[in-house]
Amino acid sequence: MADLPWTEKYRPKSLDEIKGQNKAISEIREWMRSVRAGKVSKALLLVGPPGSGKTSAAYAIAYELGYDPVEVNASDLRDRTHLKYVVESAKAVSLLTLSRRLIVLDEVDALPSEGGALVSLVKELITKEGVPVVMTANNPYERHLYEIRSLSKVVRFYRLRWTTVLSVLKEICRKEGVKVPDNILRQIAVNSQGDLRAAINDLESLVKGSHKLSEVIGKKFGKRDVEADVFKVLTAVFYGENCYSAYLTSLNTDVDPDMLFRWVEENLPYVYKGRALSKAYDYLSYADIVRSRIIKTNNWKLLVYYTQLTTYAVCTAKEAKPQGVKMKFPEIIRKLATTKELRTKTREFLSRLAKELHLPTKTVRMEIVPILIADGKREGRIIKRLERDLGLREEDIREILEDLEENYKLEIRG
Amino acid sequence: MAFELWIEKYRPRTLDDIVDQEDVIRALKGFVEKRSMPHLLFAGPAGTGKTTTALALAHDIYGSEELLRANYMELNASDERGIDTIRTKIKDFAKTAPFGDVPFKIIHLDEADSLTADAQHALRRIMEMYSATTRFILACNYSSKIIEPIQSRCAVFRFGPIPEEAVRERLLMIAEKEGVKYTEEGISAIVYVAEGDLRRAINLLQTASAMADEVDAKVVYRVAGLAHPEEVRGMINAALKGRFIAARDMLRNLMINYGMSAQDVIKQLNREIIASKSIPDNMKAQLMVFLSEVDFRVTEGAHGDVQLAAMLAKLVELGESHGGPSLD
Ligand SMILES: Nc1ncnc2c1ncn2[C@@H]1O[C@H](COP(=O)(O)OP(=O)(O)O)[C@@H](O)[C@H]1O
Ligand SMILES: Nc1ncnc2c1ncn2[C@@H]1O[C@H](COP(=O)(O)OP(=O)(O)O)[C@@H](O)[C@H]1O
Ligand SMILES: [Mg+2]
Ligand SMILES: [Mg+2]
After folding, report:
1. What is the pLDDT of residues A202-222, one digit of tens each?
2. What is the ipTM of this complex?
3. How far is the CA of B47 from the centre of ligand 2 (A)?
4. Do B145 and B91 have their domain in common?
5. Mean pLDDT in each 10-residue stretch from start to end of chain B (328 residues)?
6. By C-alpha distance, which of B103, B111, B56 is closest to B86?
7. Is B201 among the domain residues?
8. Chain B touched by A336 (CB under 8 Å)
9. Of residues A313, A220, A335, the one with CA closest to residue A266
């Protein structure tokens, strides 16, 4: 159980757990009613992009009906005798579970079309035997599916919204007890282009440390493309004369609004100066308020203002024609994403000390850490003592202190 | 736990050893004699002995280290993740009966003023729910930030900054025992920088003596510069001189690396700006308006780093139009 990939571990078991496909689910329920009533007149064909929940839905249907799902795959279809066996056994009740059966034909657009085996199978199961069939397909317009479509009730699954993907990712983080900064989750969500399977895989490889953020994010449409998009928007905002078109440029790209905000914020002071800078920052700070209101009230209608203030308004603040500079990756995101593991260790260390010393952790950071760093450079007496008292290894303490020291710029006098 | 850290090593264990705060101590001793006490609220600046006094009081009431450990729990409101985790911890702690013959356990909740008003109301209910078997000692910097219903259920004690002479005496005592070499100016510098915060004074002494063979004024000022107040000044000065990017880097350093909250930074900013002798009054007035706005926005859920960066951009603009003043 523990080793299941997250896409399996968090596969929806029932229809209610399938997110963002309300219309599809209610159509499915309607079809299920006719199955329960013993009137199976059509197969069910679930169509939609990858990672939108089709296969999960197929098995959830079987589960909710209390039927045993029997999956028929490509090689089954090629083997006529086997196919016959499938049909025969599908008619009967399972001896093991005493349940009836439901046939699942996953990704029918990829199944071999030769000989019309698929069509005759579906026909036979549905019309002659009254065995329910659920199929999935990415592309319902595949030529050889023409006849299948006419035998089926077609239910459309849609690309999930990035906000839906984000909420699933957050839920998984919560259940796994891992902390990933919101910005990064959003980036993964937007990058997935509505493919929840891809998003969950990205998250898992990021958290388990097998991939770096840039690799995960870059995977889908190439890191360069995202950055090229961002670059286009930033150029339009900072250097363009027409602020409306700068705003339109942002709409035509697939950059997550929060990421765009951070890119704009990071680079603004390199381009704007003085009064223009202060005015532009004023707009950004207002955009930030809008963002917090969206989150607090779940009012996504406000999102347009967030984007407009970040692009259009900032664009209007410039005074002289700004100088060109190289765009920088938002530092704050890098800072939050780096050395995640060490950060956790550091946090734990600081809070252990805080407990022992009856202090708030921030005081430990500000007043105690400098003592430890200075001590570490000389005899290291306090560190040795901590090793004993807190049961920590000296190397670990030193590693943590090195990490912390970078921020204190503490040098020792000879 | 006998740490090599001096604040711990020289922490008073009983009420008799607490420096200064005589009025508070006299009243608390009454509770020890009767072995009964109401809920308490300790208010005062950092490093004046609130936590230490709470521990010492509990120590004297329970009479032994073992009983103290079994009956005393310490929580820090700003380190816990919200009132729900605080509630759970209190519930777990309060569900077993007190050990020994004192009929209550003590819960010390530090930085209670970091809780929102809503959370404080929840806290009040928690205090009531367990009032049969527990007493609370709440600590805060400002009692005005504690809601009335809690204040009225507590005996309030005010801790003042430790007088310079008492700080000096304590430092000299520790320096003697630890064999620290120092100069008069070095000790005076610590006393000056610490501003009545005895904990900071002791920590400065230890950092300085770990960094140099002799604690003189120069080392002390360098060491003191490592802690945040100097960095906040540096940040303000950079902005006033038009160096926005440097100022924003310092801001991020304070928030991400030092772990200062936006509210901490705002508080410091306000202190520095108000007290500055070189920022003109009309500019101060404008800054007050901006700061109050930033403070409000952050409490409402905006990103502290963004709001404060916008504030720095304002400082750059105002600095320019006032000929680039700096803090003194
Ligand atoms: N709509 C959805 N609601 C919840 N989880 C989903 C949804 N779509 C995909 N997933 C997640 O992605 C994984 C793969 O989904 P799947 O149903 O196999 O997609 P499809 O068959 O449409 O390619 C599932 O295990 C689940 O973790
Ligand atoms: N009044 C005091 N008397 C003696 N030592 C004190 C006093 N106030 C602070 N200290 C020293 O400073 C350290 C921290 O004080 P603490 O009780 O944590 O202050 P607060 O809780 O008010 O911030 C103590 O361990 C002790 O060494
Ligand atoms: Mg599938
Ligand atoms: Mg304290």
Report:
1. 888 888 766 666 655 555 444
2. 0.75
3. 5
4. yes
5. 83 92 91 92 95 96 92 91 87 90 94 88 92 94 91 93 96 97 95 92 95 90 62 89 92 75 84 87 92 92 93 93 78
6. B111
7. yes
8. yes
9. A335
Q: Hey, are the CB atoms on B314 and A278 less than 8 Å from each other?
A: yes
How many separate helices (H) and strands (E) can be counted in chain A? Answer: 23, 5
Q: Which of A296, A367, A374 sits opposite B211 (nearest CB)?
A: A374
* Structural contact between residues A260 and A293, judged by C-beta atoms closer than 8 angstroms: no
Determine, for residues A288 and B259 on separate chains, whether the beta-carbon distance falls below 8 Å: no
Determine the CATH number of domain A162-221. 1.10.8
Q: What are phi and psi of A208, to 5 degrees?
A: -80, 0
Q: Are B218 and B275 within one domain?
A: no
B204 to chain A: which residues are within 8 Å by CB? 367
DSSP SS3 for B13: coil
What is the spatial distance between Cα A140 and Cα A47, in angstroms, rounded to a whole number? Answer: 6
User: What is the rounded radius of gyration, in angstroms, for the C-alpha atoms of chain B?
Assistant: 22
Contact of A41 with A126, CB cutoff 8 Å: yes
B206 and B187 Cβ atoms separated by less than 8 Å: no
User: Does residue A108 carry a pLDDT above 90?
Assistant: no
CATH architecture of structural domain A6-156: 3-Layer(aba) Sandwich (3.40)
User: Does any domain span residue B327?
Assistant: no
Contact of A362 with chain B, judged by CB distance below 8 Å, is answered with yes
Q: Which residues of chain B neighbour A413 with C-beta distances below 8 Å?
A: 211-212, 219
Place of tokens 């680039």: B324
Question: Is A295 within 8 Å of B301 when comparing Cβ atoms?
Answer: yes
| Sequence spans of domains, chain A | 6-156, 162-221, 226-333, 340-408
Whether the Cβ atoms of residue B197 and residue B47 lie closer than 8 Å to each other:
yes
> How many CB pairs lie under 8 A apart between chains A and B?
145
| CATH fold group of domain A226-333 | Zinc Finger, Delta Prime; domain 3 (1.20.272)
Closest-lying ligand to the alpha carbon of A7?
A: 1
Nearest chain A residue (CA) to B2: A389
Length of chain A equals: 414
Of B174, B194, B227, the last residue of a domain is B227
Chain B neighbors of A389, CB-CB under 8 A = 1, 3
pTM for the predicted model, two decimal places:
0.55
Q: Using CA coordinates, name the residue in chain B closest to A376.
A: B210
Q: Structural domain of residue B205, as residue ranges? A: 164-227
Between the CA of B110 and the centroid of ligand 2 the distance, in Å, is 13
Based on the domain organization, do B69 and B90 belong to the same domain?
Answer: yes
Arithmetic mean of pLDDT, A221-244: 78
C-beta of residue B327 within 8 angstroms of C-beta of residue B234: no
Question: A11 in ligand 1 pocket by Cβ < 6 Å?
Answer: yes
Option in A366, A371, A389 nearest B206 (CB): A371
Q: Which of A188, A151, A155 is nearest to A172 (CA)?
A: A188
CA atoms within 13 A on the CB side of A158: 11
Regarding whether B301 and B214 lie in a shared domain, the answer is no
